[in-house]
């Protein structure tokens, strides 16, 4: 009896193993005129091509994802049809954390009609989420992930479907350190990250470059994104007497640090600098008047840096949503969508009835082959690890801290631009 | 002789467990002492900074304590953990924002700060009380005679329901509370500079807790609550309306959570639909730490947890050379909980109560 059961267990295990092997290493799929290793999406004549976003569109960091989603929506308005089909945008909230990224990616992976995805917002979502989409053969382009490890040459084959139009933080961290050292003349700095791949990566790049320039890092601290009481950790920082605190984190925790820093003895005159994760009117709401004077490194979103295309985008944005962009990655999202549309048109094939077939791996390869693509954020060229950005970094300083006066470039005022 | 033979293996097993626990205790004490001595030898912090750590911790702990009261009172009476209590806290603070914002916009807030504060506390306490009573009526009362696991599950369901109901009502973003000009800056108290908001929070929390304790110990209703907590059936036979007392318990716990919500908003300014989760878990920890079911225990546990979170990383971990110790704040807090559960399962002040119930 026991033996029989054991035999059954072995048989079932073997069956599971064989099936999963078969699923993972499926033979090339042939559908209509297209053969593809990762599978083929068939879009019936007159039906829309489905593009999915996975962005943080709820919670304290919602402005980051909503900003990107608007960029995608404007791109769809501009493009109208892709390979003769209209475009339908669906999406999932990804929560700006690893669990949310996993959930959103799993939901998207289950929908076989999705041709390509745009996301995620936060690097912490992409680290577990991108491999799930890759397994399902869905290529994804992130408009705002900036953690260096996502496009590191050692990133591994499970990220083979992942690209980004956002800059790599190796660039942003270096720019921030140069600004702090050369422009602000600061020699002693402390950093805070929140344990997310984005913040940790950026804080480390900043610290490395700042030390190489000749500065001293008094302490490298970490908090958790849900922490509210930052006074103890700020007191610890105060013990090292820094002139600047660099905290490239997100809005909720960033707001608390900004409000509480000036209340801690020894930090009354310290300069505060954050990064693109808090470059939003919501950050002003979170930090209140304490946000005045805070520096943010962020993509250079000025018409002089990006040209008249960006002005046209801003006009459309104002007309469609009645306000200024909410964060820093709308243009990157627009470019991500346009890049995907161009790649789809390159690989889509039609049959005699007018149905369209898109090979998943072919689409991925076409995206990675993007060269000198004229986007709003610059001329995009993708490297073999998915970095497509043409990075332009600037530093902004908050003047009024009144969310109603949010107007990137004027207030927060652009005070410095990275030399290229 | 036979008894001796029988007893020996038992004695040996106990002594092995004892030895292990003693080794564990010793190891923890050694690590703590080593870390503390190391930190003090480093001399990184000034005396004032240590005082600051403690004051910051007390202010945070006062909020934990007020929320913990709700957990502990409900447990005392129903022997269940009301996991929706964090959301009760959120509902009051979030709703009162919609009173605070127009008050601030009209300038009333700065002209009459004390009156506004009382008004806000009133609104928050009223909403939280309403939500707490509603949860009791809908989610717990129908299950009064069900096995204990059942209301625990509905509590978690109620918690999710409330979070997403408030998300639907007020939106998914966060709201920022207005600044009280009166509470900006510091007061010198006994030669120590204390942030005004924190002084207000500590004082209000102390007053509320004192009032609550007096209510439970001195009034007739308080006596009835204690009677129900001892034995529901006997209390009913003595002519106490048990359902009414249970509702009262939820209402008082809700009011304390609502007040805590305003104090939280005073200190941290941000409110959103998910804000109740972490303070709820922390306050639950505080309630267990102090001895769940015990009101002074919840207060003590809350303050203790707040101080440990604030002082612990700097005091214990700095000396051990651990980088970025404040990332491990929660580790310290929950290690403390595990330690208490291992060595004093009834909590710091839980002994008398546990003995009475046994």
Please give the share of residues in helix of chain B. over 70%
Instruction: Kindly report the average pLDDT value of chain B.
Output: 85
Helical percentage of chain A: 40-55%
- Kindly provide the radius of gyration of chain A, computed on alpha-carbon positions and rounded to a whole number of angstroms: 23 Å
The strand count of chain B comes to 4
Shape of chain A: globular
Relevant CATH superfamily of the largest domain in chain A: Response regulator
What structural class should be given to the helix and strand makeup of chain A? alpha/beta
The first-level CATH class name of the largest domain in chain A: Alpha Beta
Strand content of chain A: 15-25%
Main β-sheet of chain B, in a few words? 2 strands, antiparallel
Shape of chain B: globular
Main beta sheet of chain A:
7 strands, mixed
Number of distinct helices of chain B = 14
Amount of beta strand of chain B = under 5%
**Structural Rg of chain B:** 22 Å
Oligomer: heterodimer
> So how many helices of chain A?
13
Layout of secondary structure:
The complex is a heterodimer of chains A (420) and B (358).
Chain A: H1 2-24, E1 29-31, E2 34-36, E3 40-43, E4 49-55, H2 62-79, E5 81-82, E6 85-93, H3 98-109, E7 114-119, H4 123-135, E8 139-142, E9 162-164, H5 169-183, E10 188-193, H6 197-213, E11 216-222, H7 231-238, E12 244-246, H8 251-261, E13 271-274, H9 281-287, E14 295-299, H10 303-306, H11 308-321, H12 330-347, E15 349-350, E16 356-359, H13 360-368, E17 373-374, E18 379-380, E19 393-397, E20 413-417
Parallel strand pairs in A: 4-6, 4-7, 7-8, 8-9, 10-11, 10-12, 12-13, 13-14
Antiparallel strand pairs in A: 1-2, 3-16, 5-6, 14-19, 15-16, 17-18, 19-20
Helix pairs in contact in A: 2-12, 3-4, 5-6, 8-9, 12-13
Chain B: H1 2-42, H2 47-78, H3 85-106, H4 108-111, H5 113-140, H6 149-170, E1 175-176, E2 186-189, E3 192-195, H7 196-218, H8 220-230, H9 232-237, H10 242-268, E4 270-271, H11 277-290, H12 295-317, H13 329-343, H14 351-357
Antiparallel strand pairs in B: 1-4, 2-3
